[in-house]
Amino acid sequence: MEKSQSQTNFTAGLQYRGILEVLLSSVPITGSCCVFLFINGLMLHTLRSKPVFCETACYILLYNLLSADTVQMVLTQLLYLLSVCRITLTYPVCGFLIMITNLTTGISPLTLVVMSLERYVAVCCPLRHAAIITIRNTALAIIIVWAISSLNVSIRVILLLIFSFEDLESLQMKDTCSHTHLLLNPISDHYDKAYTCVLFVSAAVAVTCSYIGVAIAARSASTDKASTHKARNTLLLHLIQLGLSLSSTICNPLLTEISKVLDRVTVLRIWSVLYVFMMLLPRCLSPLIYGIRDQTIRAMLMYHLCCRAKTVSDSSKGQHVRLR
């Protein structure tokens, strides 16, 4: 009896130690997320600071992409913290958070497709670029992107409402809020898989075809080699972004399967790693890609950073003088 009691205490101690370890590891992850949110916010402010950013199609599309990624980063970080802390929600609250997440999840790959097509037109049809890629057409493309993603969310809500919640004892969820736990009937599961497959296959085909078109144009003597090479690299980075975005959609199903064979502490450790590389990283690439590679954005970004740093420095000096 004493041996059994000591074994139970030892197991509970290990679980407490493991959970404490996961909670402590979530602190640097949350800190990193806050840093990237600050960078995204600064990028969004930069893209509205000069008329050239508001009148150029690629910058308008980038603003749309960054907005969706920023909202998704906030929501995924919130869901991650709720999962780590084992905080359960009601089905309506969880459903609202997941549907907003689904909305922004669909916007990212669709916007990448539009950005890839814009680069293709710029390289392969430079004389018609100004006539095709207008502010009006860019706004129309963004409206279509949001409409497709909103339609997907509407269908998911209808499929969710089909489920008879009256049969449940309570609307309080027994597990943490996640995309997988809201697939309450087989139809929702089938639709989710079909939509994800069609979306990312279509996006991959569009970006790949754009890349091939730009690569073929690069061999022509009449094209600008420098701009063509830059456009080709941009499209290659879009393909990487697309692949990482796709990986984020399989994160929750993968975690669900892992949780069936491993203990909770190990699952939480794996969840922390998967969250960083499959959920957080894809949303951080856009500011890194464009903030470093684009000279116009880089110059303005450094200007805003330096001004902010100078303001903080002057404020601290003023406080120091008043204290003296």
Descriptive overview:
This protein has 324 residues and is mainly α. Helix content is 83%, strand content 0%. The chain has eleven helices and no strands. The longest helix is centred in the first third of the chain and has 45 residues, at 2-46. It is globular, with a radius of gyration of 24 Å.
What is the ordering of alpha helices and beta strands?
HHHHHHHHHHH
Strand content: under 5%
**Structural class per helix/strand content?**
mainly alpha
Put simply, the count of helices is: 11
Mean pLDDT: 77
* Separation, N- and C-terminal Cα atoms: 68 Å
| Helical proportion, percent range | over 70%
- The count of DSSP E runs of length 2 or more, i.e. the number of strands, is 0
Radius of gyration: 24 Å
Gross morphology is globular
- Uncertain segments of ≥5 residues (pLDDT<50)? 1-14, 318-323
Largest sheet: none
Summary of the model, kept short:
The protein is an all-alpha fold. It is 83% helix and 0% strand.
Provide tags for this entry.
mainly alpha, disordered C terminus, 324 residues, 11 helices
Topology diagram in text:
Blueprint: H1 2-46, H2 51-54, H3 57-84, H4 91-124, H5 129-132, H6 135-162, H7 186-218, H8 225-249, H9 251-259, H10 264-293, H11 295-323
Helix pairs in contact: 1-3, 1-10, 3-4, 3-6, 3-10, 4-6, 4-7, 4-8, 6-7, 7-8, 8-10, 9-10, 10-11
